[in-house]
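Tokens for chain A. Residues wanted.
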């Protein structure tokens, strides 16, 4: 009886697809999904860059030219509005004056 059970268990393991036992590592990070969504909508992507300051009509970044905007949104990678401070790392998405800054953590830089 024990031999039959062992044989059935071994056979089930051999015939079962490997995907059932493997971890699901092919899911994309939220930053990757968000960047792809905006890229598909026609936004150009700059980043990651370090945010320095915001003036009345432009945003200044470290070692990059300022970007002018008419409408500005600041979000997290999951799409939730957030705030930003000097030195934060962001992705800049721009399209015809609409600018979206996606604030990211330093560890998310290598994920995207």
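Reply:
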């Amino acid at each position: 009886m024990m031999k039959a059970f062992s044989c059935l268990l071994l056979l089930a393991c051999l015939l079962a697809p490997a995907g059932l036992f493997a971890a699901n590592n092919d899911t994309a990070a939220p930053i990757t999904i968000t960047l792809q969504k905006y890229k598909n909508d026609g936004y150009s992507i700059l980043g990651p860059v370090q945010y320095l300051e915001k003036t009345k009509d432009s945003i200044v970044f470290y070692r990059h030219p300022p970007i002018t905007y008419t409408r500005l949104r600041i979000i997290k990678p999951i799409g939730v509005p957030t705030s930003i401070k000097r030195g934060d790392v962001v992705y800049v998405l721009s399209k015809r004056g609409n600018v979206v800054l996606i604030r990211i953590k330093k560890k998310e830089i290598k994920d995207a």
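Strands lie at 44-54, 58-61, 64-68, 71-75, 89-95, 98-104. The first helix runs from residue 2 to 15.
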